[in-house]
Amino acid sequence: MSTIKPRGKIPFECTALLLQGGGALGAYQGGVYEALHEAGIEPNWIAGISIGAVNSAIIAGNPPENRVSQLRKFWETVTVPTPIDVSPFIRGDSARSYMNQWFSGLALVSGIPEFFKPRFPSPMFQPPGTLAATSFYDPSALKSTLESLVDFDRINNGDMRFSVGAVNIRSGNFVYFDSVDYKIGTEHILASGALPPAFPAVEIEGEYFWDGGLVSNTPLDWVLGVRPQIDSLVFQVDLWSARGDIPGCMQNVMTRQKEIQYSSRTRSSTDHFEHSQQLRAALADLLDQLPESLKKGDGYELLKPEATRKVYNIVELIYRPQHYEGDSKDYDFSRQSMEDHWRAGYYDTVRTLRNKKVLERPRNDIVQTFDMAG
Q1: First CA to last CA across the chain, in angstroms?
Q2: Angle (deg, nearest 10), helices 64-77 and 51-60
Q3: Rounded to two decimals, what is the model's pTM?
Q4: Is the pLDDT of residue 69 over 60?
Q5: Span 337-348, mean pLDDT?
Q6: Dihedrals φ, ψ of 235, to 5°?
Q7: What's the number of CA atoms in the CB half-sphere (13 Å) around residue 99?
Q8: Which of 200, 202, 198, 168 is nearest to 186 (CA)?
Q9: What is the pLDDT of residue 84?
């Protein structure tokens, strides 16, 4: 089975779409994909963490012409329409903040239809050693929702490489369930999104797994670390911004703490990767200049695979939250917030794609990084 299906029009062997975790903020990724789809850009490798794994499965598990509609169907299914407009009574950002907090509280108390529901009785009254005793919510409805929206045979047929990350509870190690090595099923998606203590661990092959965001909330290193290396156009979609203001109240402290904890720190990773690629290109130049008599032995064979001139465009698309969004924005499942997040992802991507260099193979640099919205 081929791990990567080569691209035709785009001058890269791989077009990767990487989707971070972030709960209700994941609608932003739906807008990003819609804009990419309209531009004729389809990934041949998709990787996700947590809610990014859910979006990834819906994209990979449907034909291109159905992906946007299936994403919309999912997000409309798990969000709640606004029953009353409070703007005539509370003006400006205060109205949205009040509404968002109300919907977030509703999700905590009542759960989200077709996604998760509160456990009753609560975990402290459940038998020790059971999954019910280790989580506040039952996400079994999400399994049925995924099965209705995702064709897992399509994910496993090899046309698009698929990867989702999770954490092995026993070892504490990060694990990627990759379609190259695994037959992907709903359990792998649920494992990637099993954030404790809200959701229970998911058993896979006798081991138990939690949300990959506990260790790393982005699949960037997994994709960039593939061997042998391939020319790659990478769209990195983050739901948490690493940059922010100094908090002025306790609510802002909680918001900023969550942003820092779950942000991908993409700039640091890409700077390190760019330096590594420069060293690999220099090594390739050096090995080319060696006489044939020196191109023998274990040392040369060890260095040769690391000598490469492969190029990368890394496109960062990062959701920048509105002032009225607080620490509960990742579980605000109101329809209006969903539409706002989707729209933001769409237009951030449209603006980014106006830069023609995004889709052009680098000429002078080995690694080019784009953050147009920032």
Answers
A1: 39
A2: 140
A3: 0.91
A4: yes
A5: 96
A6: -100, 110
A7: 24
A8: 202
A9: 62
- Residue identified by tokens 């997994």 is 222
Which residue type occupies 264? Answer: S
In contact, 245 and 325? CB cutoff 8 Å: no
Q: How far is CA 318 from CA 243, 245, 325, in A?
A: 11, 16, 15
Distance, in Å, from the CA atom of 230 to the CA atom of 98, rounded to the nearest integer, reads 48
Q: Tokens 């280790």 correspond to what residue? A: 134
Question: Which residues of the chain form beta strands (DSSP E)?
Answer: 14-19, 45-48, 117-118, 137-138, 161-168, 174-178, 202-204, 207-211, 232-238, 312-318, 367-370
How far is the C-alpha of 315 from the C-alpha of 17, rounded, in Å? 10
β-pair partners for 313: 233, 368
CA angle 302, 303, 306 (to 5 degrees): 115
The average pLDDT across 41-69 equals 97
Question: Which residues face 162 on adjacent strands?
Answer: 46
